[in-house]
Write a structure and sequence with these properties.
single chain; alpha+beta; Alpha-Beta Plaits; about 25% strand; globular
Amino acid sequence: MSVYYIAEHIITDPVKFEEYRVKVAPMIASYGGRYITKAGSHKFPESPHWKPERVVIIEFPSMERLNAWYTSTERMDRKSQGLSLKLTMSDPSLLCTIR
């Protein structure tokens, strides 16, 4: 059963974000993940309360694969290099997984 990683990114450094995006995409794919959304593709047909800058939805084949990616050494190495730290989440509750 597919599961989904959903997050809002508030981009504070576009250059670092692009560096991160280029490096993380193949890593996500290696865990069976695929992007469901593209930059600027989210629309809200009814004036929403939530108005995110950038929504990311990534589909994984299972919660195990999502968790394997999320806790992977590769991903943690990216964080320790400061690449993903340039992405600030506006609210921790906007990072979720759906089974």
